[in-house]
Design brief:
The complex is a heterodimer of chains A (499) and B (82).
Chain A (H helix, E strand, L loop, with lengths): L3 H11 L4 E5 L2 E4 H17 L7 E5 L4 H12 L3 E4 L6 H11 L3 E5 L3 H9 L5 E5 L23 E6 L9 E5 H15 L6 E4 L6 H12 L3 E4 L6 H10 L4 E4 L1 H9 L13 E4 L6 H10 L4 E7 L6 E5 L13 E2 L3 E6 L12 E7 L5 E2 L3 H7 E2 L2 E10 L5 E6 L4 E3 L2 E3 L1 H8 L5 E11 L3 E10 L6 H12 L8 E4 L13 H9 L2
Parallel strand pairs in A: 1-10, 3-4, 3-5, 5-6, 9-10, 9-11, 11-12, 12-13, 25-26
Antiparallel strand pairs in A: 1-2, 7-8, 8-18, 13-14, 14-15, 16-17, 17-20, 19-20, 20-21, 22-23, 24-25
Chain B lengths: L2 H13 L22 H15 L10 H4 L2 H13 L1
Classes of the chains: A alpha/beta (499), B mainly alpha (82).
């Protein structure tokens, strides 16, 4: 098996003049893209990058995010793409945890710059201006790669700052295996062109990027969807053949656009992942863009990206299912002892295959809990039907899925605890039509202070990414607890769900 | 209260968690500075539609109309005059 570097380098050789990446008025063909990759790889090496060294990448969707990833790999490094919406406290914790010596970021990112000022050790930094390429260094062409597919390629942080950050370790083989499977079922070719709003620091966005580059297709980066009609217009005018989104993306498109005025005749496929999409919204999406095949998918960062896909020709027959395993992945449903359950029985979804992570970075205990006897414990509860289609019923832990984001309640609770007047708090995800789940905070206050809710919101805004700020705040006398003292978050969510 | 002040008061209270309307500047870039995200824009549009008796169409949901307080104010005035 070849790694992504070898596969994309081959694309640059075979189709140098074809568009690889687009962003606004900018367009990079494969030859230019690869020249920039090689040039930045030399620049990283000139600053002392050694094999296996981690390099943090904090960039929004722009060509340089892709150039940086491939350059790090070409130079033998490990890419650590970080969420650009995170705050200084997150960046400090992640960079300290992964031990990155070099940081690539967009000029003017205040939280990154604050983080760098407070870092006691000098880090090598690459601050790239808007619409400008990354710096390059001379050094000639790289020889054909001999990097092992078993080597670590990237670390993706799935949780925040408190306790032990969870950095999912993916190998070059993990990435290549999953990319191959996705290209297969989407039928991607060099004629494809996708409008990509999904950030490359998330597994789904990274999958969109790598699958299209390996297939020789084109990736047109766009900003996060703030104005749905503009997104729909860009989809039509770019003559995109594909579009990927999470349920909230599609909900905004369905609720706030007028699709009638555009020509979508080039559009061939839509993909959806990042949480369950309701059958009602699925029908709406089909109605909005009927000419495109809709691929409902399910996956986890711990399994690189995609685990299952629902063949579009069976979408309505299996509406609500997340489909069948992608190539190279086995799935079973097990009880709490790990014993396989029969068809139709609900239990924990376990997966194995070439896309399953190496483990969590410097967290052997967490890795051992997640990986048992070659199987990854997804923490998702589900069941398989008689045709082998997987149906997801919920989570077995407290992870909140809001929009495209994953939020651990403890991250939010720790920030709320910093506010004067808060005795204790519990954060839960409650069902939300638009976001899948919305974050709700339950607060036990010390005494009565009318401005406490505003103070909590203001403090959360200062300390956390916007998507982590609770949508609702409720004041209660005591938190419900189990006999052993653990907060019963499920009870709080239930109260909210049935007022 | 004039429209611009009401808009500033709403943004300050709901996105910046402040009682002071001047927490948000007239020409401050609301999107680039992270004050408004995708959900925030739709909440703001709902407020504007309810508060000023206008209807915002999908075609009017543009950065040029919602990028700054000044732009929102001008958009509301134009809609009310139409």
């Amino acid at each position: 098996m070849h790694g992504l570097v070898a596969l994309v380098r081959e694309r640059a050789r075979l189709q140098p003049a074809a568009e690889a990446l687009g962003h606004g008025a900018r367009s990079l063909d494969y030859a230019t893209f690869w020249l920039q990759v090689e040039g930045f790889a030399h620049a990283l090496l000139a600053k002392g990058l050694v094999p296996g060294e981690r390099v943090a990448v904090i960039l929004p969707n722009r060509p340089e995010a892709a150039v940086a990833l491939y350059a790090i790999w070409l130079a033998g490094g490990v890419a650590v793409p970080l969420n650009v919406q995170a705050r200084e406290r997150d960046f400090t914790a992640w960079i300290r945890h992964c031990g990155a010596q070099q940081v690539v970021y967009e000029q003017g990112h205040a939280d990154v710059e604050t983080m760098l000022e407070t870092f006691p050790e000098a880090l090598t930094t690459w601050d790239v201006a808007a619409d400008m390429p990354l710096p390059i260094a001379a050094g000639g062409r790289f020889p054909p790669g001999t990097a092992s597919v078993d080597a670590l390629a990237c670390i993706l942080y799935t949780s925040g700052t408190t306790g032990a950050p969870k950095g999912v370790m993916l190998s070059h083989g993990n990435l290549a295996s999953n990319v191959s499977a996705v290209i297969g079922y989407l039928g991607l070719t060099p004629q494809d062109r996708i409008l990509s709003l999904l950030p490359c620091y998330y597994a789904y966005g990274a999958s969109v990027l790598h699958t299209h580059l390996v297939a020789g297709a084109s990736v047109v980066f766009a900003e996060p969807m703030l104005f749905p009609q503009q997104t729909l217009k860009a989809l039509a005018t770019s003559r995109a053949t594909g579009f990927s989104g999470v349920p909230s993306t599609y909900a905004l498109l369905c609720d706030h656009t007028d699709a009638g005025m555009f020509d979508f005749s080039a559009l061939r496929y839509l993909t959806q992942a990042g949480g369950a999409m309701s059958p009602a919204l699925t029908r709406q999406v089909r109605g909005l863009l009927p000419q495109a095949a809709l691929y409902v998918m399910y996956g986890q960062t711990e399994a690189t990206s995609r685990l299952t896909w629902l063949p579009p020709d069976r979408l309505m027959e299996k509406l609500g299912s997340v489909g069948i395993p992608v190539d190279g992945v086995d799935i079973r449903v097990a009880d709490e002892n790990g014993c396989t359950l029969p068809v139709g029985s609900e239990g924990e979804v376990l997966v194995r295959g070439q896309s399953v992570m190496l483990g969590y970075w410097q967290a052997p205990e967490a890795s051992a809990l997640a990986l048992r006897d070659g199987w990854l414990r997804t923490r998702d509860i589900g069941w398989l039907d008689e045709d082998g289609f997987l149906w997801i019923a919920g989570r077995s832990d407290d992870l909140i899925k809001t929009g495209a984001h994953r939020v651990h309640p403890q991250d939010v609770e720790d920030v709320i605890a910093e506010v004067a007047g808060v005795r204790e708090s519990a954060v839960v995800g409650i069902d939300d039509e638009m976001l899948g789940q919305a974050i709700a905070a339950y607060i036990v206050a010390e005494g009565s202070r009318p401005e406490l809710e505003r103070d909590i919101r203001a403090h959360c805004r200062k300390r956390m990414a916007p998507y982590k700020i609770p949508r609702t705040i409720h004041f209660i006398d005591t938190l419900p607890r189990t006999a052993s003292g653990k907060v019963r978050r499920a009870a709080l969510a239930q109260v909210h769900a049935t007022p | 209260m004039e429209a611009r002040q009401r808009i500033k008061q709403y943004i300050a209270a709901n996105y910046l968690f402040s009682d002071d309307p001047d927490t948000v500047g007239d020409q401050q870039q609301l999107i680039q500075s992270g004050v408004l995200d995708s959900m925030g824009i739709f909440e703001l549009i709902t407020f504007i539609e309810g508060g000023f008796g206008i209807k915002v169409t999908p075609e009017e949901m543009l950065p040029v109309n919602f990028g700054t307080v000044e732009a929102i104010d001008a958009f509301v005035r134009a809609k009310q005059a139409a």
